[in-house]
Amino acid sequence: MCRRCKPELRQNFQSASGICICHWLQIRRTRSREGRAMWLPPALLLLSLSGCFSIQGPESVRAPEQGSLTVQCHYKQGWETYIKWWCRGVRWDTCKILIETRGSEQGEKSDRVSIKDNQKDRTFTVTMEGLRRDDADVYWCGIERRGPDLGTQVKVIVDPEGAASTTASSPTNSNMAVFIGSHKR
């Protein structure tokens, strides 16, 4: 299972485009029956990376307390009819899915969160309304698939009421690191 880059490795391995190379290194490493580290052959490594770079979103977004924010997550061709989801939590493998699509373009709403997939543009949009300070956290845009899901991390910052803020989701802040792993649902 692939996890986030360790903070101490992030600067060393994160390229200018935001691709988190340490994930490639982490998946290659596995354990033998005796508990010794071993490396996967390159062909098997490539198979385990299928779907990499298939989803991207902003690195962070910010909005004022009581306001709303919108996050657009982009995906590559071939993922249009898959279920898209939005989950909360620093750890990829235990984040809580707040809302998901049904594999169609029909919008879904649950409490203060909505999600809509535009399959033509290959973008799904998540909106959070009535923001509270405790909504500030790490979230994930994801695609459910057979095997491990795909996802990319988005940091949500909620400014105190009355503070000036803007929502940042420009392509220059794009997070291209792709995380492949399982979720506890």
From TrEMBL:
Record keywords: Disulfide bond, Membrane, Signal, Transmembrane
Location of this chain's protein in the cell: Membrane
Sequence ranges assigned to domain Ig-like in this UniProt record: 42-157
Keyword Transmembrane among UniProt keywords: yes
Q: Which domain of life is it from?
A: Eukaryota
GO cellular component entries: membrane
Protein name in UniProt: cDNA FLJ60785, highly similar to Homo sapiens CD300 antigen like family member B (CD300LB), mRNA
Q: What is the lineage of its organism?
A: Eukaryota, Metazoa, Chordata, Craniata, Vertebrata
